[in-house]
């Protein structure tokens, strides 16, 4: 029942003397219902690892597989949602249009996408912003909308890259509350990268990145 598995997966950028190893050979697995925090300092490789799990980056060594999700990009796009650290909404679209767009792009009808968007916005508490343009939102509002967009896909796996990293403590805590509640309601697995111990403490399983090297406690079931 593994959603995604890395087997000695590595990612190097550049070639020759300019090569930078962002992730050394890393082995890990995400199971249904998982709640995982990937911790590490800035530049440790945790975002690159998350992108490998999402299929946004191709490993330069080892392998990444999605046994329960399908290995084609089209199959994965329906089951994996990514919440990015920085601005990711289309500024000229309304909140409702942003939330529904990802579902439409995966082949969901516009009627169904609108229905999912409305439900997702209600779940994360941004229904009152439906017709507001994305470029008028505060940072906390934008992150909540990004979470709504993710869960409107009805994914089996949500990958969140420093979702509170650019927010103040109170706003960040609220956004994390929204994210945790949303994945609990949908039943999706959740992997969050963070450098904040308070965020990591909210998730049951902890992985650590140090200079591109992943450490997963043996008791978590990784061989």
UniProtKB/TrEMBL annotation:
Q: What's the protein here called?
A: ABC transport system ATP-binding protein
**Superkingdom of source:** Bacteria
The species is Kribbella aluminosa
GO molecular-function term, one example from the UniProt record: ATP binding
Q: Which UniProt keywords apply?
A: ATP-binding, Nucleotide-binding
Q: Which InterPro entries match?
A: AAA+_ATPase, ABC_transporter-like_ATP-bd, ABC_transporter-like_CS, ABC_transpr_LolD-like, P-loop_NTPase
Q: ABC transporter domain: which residues?
A: 4-222
Give the Gene3D superfamilies listed for this entry.
P-loop containing nucleotide triphosphate hydrolases
Where are the coiled-coil regions? none
Give a single Pfam family match.
ABC_tran
């Amino acid at each position: 029942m593994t959603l995604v598995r890395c087997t000695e997966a590595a990612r190097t950028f550049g070639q020759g003397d300019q090569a930078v190893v962002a992730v050394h050979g890393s082995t890990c697995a995400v199971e249904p219902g998982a709640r995982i925090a990937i911790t590490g300092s800035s530049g440790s490789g945790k975002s690159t690892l998350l992108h490998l799990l999402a299929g946004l980056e191709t490993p330069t060594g080892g392998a990444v597989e999605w046994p329960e999700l399908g290995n084609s990009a089209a199959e994965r796009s329906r089951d994996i949602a990514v919440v990015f650290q920085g601005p990711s909404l289309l500024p000229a679209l309304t909140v409702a249009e942003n939330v529904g767009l990802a579902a439409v792009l995966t082949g969901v009808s516009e009627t169904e996408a609108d229905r999912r968007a409305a439900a997702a916005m209600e779940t994360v508490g941004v229904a009152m912003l439906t017709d507001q343009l994305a470029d008028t939102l505060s940072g906390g509002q934008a992150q909540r909308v990004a979470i709504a967009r993710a869960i409107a896909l009805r994914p089996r796996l949500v990958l969140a890259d420093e979702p509170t990293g650019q927010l103040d403590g109170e706003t960040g805590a609220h956004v994390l509350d929204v994210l945790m509640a949303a994945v609990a309601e949908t039943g999706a697995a959740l992997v969050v990268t963070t450098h904040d111990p308070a965020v990591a403490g909210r998730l049951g399983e902890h992985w650590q990145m140090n200079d591109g090297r992943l450490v997963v406690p043996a008791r978590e079931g990784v061989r």
